[in-house]
Every structure is written in C-alpha cells, then in structure tokens.
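User: Please check token order:
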Amino acid sequence: MHLRRTRLAALTGIAAIALAACSGGSSTSGSTTSAAPDASAAASTPAENATPGDAGTLTIWADDLYGPAIKTASAAFAEENGVTVNVETVSKDLQAQFVTASQAGTGPDLVMGAHDWIGNLVQNGAIEPIPMTDATKALFQKPAVQAVTFNSQIYGVPYALENIALYRNTTLAPTAPATWEELQATATQLQTEGKVSELLALPIGNDGGPAPYHVQPIFTSGGGVLFVQNPDGSYDTKQMEMGSQGSIDAMTKIGQMGAAGLLKTSIGADNVATLFTDQKAAFMVSGPWNLPAVVKSGVTYEVSDLPKFADGTEAQPFIGAQTLYVAAKGKNKALAQEFATNFFIQPEVAKALYDVQPRPPALQSVYDEVAAANKDVKAFGEAGVNGQPLPSIPQMAAIFDPWGKALVSIIGGADPTTTTQQLATAINGILGQ
C-alpha cells in the first residue's frame, strides 16, 4: 500500500506541471528524476545529455509534448525502485535520431513514438519485443494491441489512440449523416442557399500527401482493400488487393466524389481546419489534432462516425497508436522491461498522459473513465471501432506516395481502372513482389 500511495502522490497535479513544462521553446532538453526528485532541464542534444549504462539509471526519449508528462510520472518509478530516470525531450526527427543513436550505441533505454515506426525500427534492430500475457493484452482496447503487433510479436506498449472522424457544424447541419449520399445532399443544399462555399473539408492536397490516410474510410466503405488483415490485426503484404475489382470500384466512387466537388485537391492539411472554423464548410473529416482550433473558434459542433456509402460497408479509418518501445541496444534492458511491462501500464500513468494530450487512452479502463466525461473523446473512440491499424511495415511511407498521387489523378478525372491497376503495379514493385 505504501508504494501505491507514493505513486499516486507523485502523479498528483501532473497535468499542470507537464503543461507548464511544455511551454519551453528549446528543441531538445534533458531532465533527471531520482529517488529524491530534483528536476532540472538544460538545452542539449539527447546524446550529449543522456548517460545510458549508468548503474541504476533509466534513459527515456520522448517528444516535447509527452516528455514533461513522462518525466513527472516516472518519479514514482524512480522512488519505488531506488533508481534514476533520465528523460530527454527530442523536438525533431525523433525516430531518425533514435535509429542513428541506436546504431552508434548511444541511444536510450526506452523511446516513445508512433506505432507505425515499428517496421523500420525492427528492420534496424533498434527495439525488442515486449512480453505481454493474454491477461495484460485484455487490459487494452483491441485496436491498440493490433497496432503494436508485428511479425506475430508485441513490439511496444500503446498508451493513446487516434483516428479521424466527422466534424459537423450543428447549426448548419443538425443531424449527422449516416451515408455519404446524405452528406452530399445536405451540403449541396447549404451551398445552394449560400450558407457554405465548400461541400466538405477533407485534406487531399495537390501532391496527395494527406490523401491516403484521410480517404481510407471512403476507400474501405466502397469495397477497397490494401492488404488482407491477419487475425492478430497485422497485414499479409503478399495478399495486396489494391488492383482487385473491389478496390477499383472504391476508386470509382472516389472519382465520382471528386466530380461532385466533395473531394478537392485545393484542400490540404494547411487549410482544412480553417474552412470549418470559418464556417465555409459544414462538414470536416479530421482527427483530434484539430479539435483545439475548432473549440477555440466557437463553432457549434459535434464529432460523429464517418459515413458509409448507401450500398457499402462500414467505414474503416486508419488507427494510430502512440507507443513506448524498449530499445534493443539499451544498457539497462531489464530495468526498461520492468518499467514498460509493470509500471507504464498503470491507469495513473495512462491518465497522466491523457491529461496533457486528450486522445482516447489505449487502456480500456481509462478510456471508459475519460469517455464518460468527455463527449469528443467518446465520439473519436466510437468512430474508430471499425478501424484498422495503420500498417507499420517499413515500406508504408513509400507506398503512400504513389497512392496519394493516384488519388489526386482520379479525383481530377483520370480513369479509375487504369490508374488503380498502375498503382497496384507500383506498390508491388515497392514490396519487391
């Protein structure tokens, strides 16, 4: 009971502390937590400030947002175990810096980042599997466990989920559309009445950069499949279905949405939120990262499930999971595994991380708690129920490039069949098959 009280005491007030720490403007910083915490911070590079391998020292790398939160939370672990926890915040290129440091033997014991890094990190020998029992897996939302599963092994501990959903201006559109056809009819009527200038705010961009991620729920509702999904949530890349008839049919529907003005290459990540907050569009497809701007604008809004086609299946957005990894070349791997598998999965830690970035927690109990109090978190969680983890294979970044360009072409009027078949050939080439 003493350790439990210590942990709770260390976590009290974490949101205020972490948010205050986040206001700093340096690109990297380091802080150390010991059995008798005496936090300090100084501008540095991770390699300069970290001391991996010191007896009783655990080094963690995180981004500017989560770094202060995990530093404060880890004070409980430091006190309980009589060790020092050194937290380094890395503002830019965290994944690349971690891989480089790992190869040089100067990396941390743990690193926090997106789940779709897994393929690249495994390929570079930078992370180790996480032993996780079925009972522990059951503590998490199912998509969270699927997201961190790679080559039939668990490679990280998920702590937050994110996916896109439908934002709706409830003054202009009081009822949430169940189908894309309903959304188009409502938006067209609003445009005819001069109340909006755009039918839908969904980022495509001239180069198609954000398109595959944001069009995924449309693609899947129309019958499209990129890879066949295995029972554990991972993907069988040898069963690539982009050139299938179902995917061609889905791309055809996407082309029709482009012809109708629902999808436009003039809308990208830089202006999508403004179109909604300026009430130039009654509907926006985006994630929780644009929620602060929507709230600040004062627009009356609701977040709801993504529509499906009237003759289609449920939309399946990509699910992302923020994850804690154990470094394969860390100097204190036993201590790192203890932190990851026993301390990091505690509800208090998950709640502390949620308090600085309110996205659906991966732990089911904490999600249930915060969803009961926050309608937006609940709505995003419900919108992701049918979602699929963003593939974490090393080639995924390369696949997104031709996929985005193909979507731009089809939205601009290119033949869906030919363009999709050419895309399939390009993806198979990237996969080497």
Residues 165-315+395-431 form a domain with the D-Maltodextrin-Binding Protein; domain 2 fold (CATH 3.40.190.10). Residues 66-81 form the longest helix (16 residues).
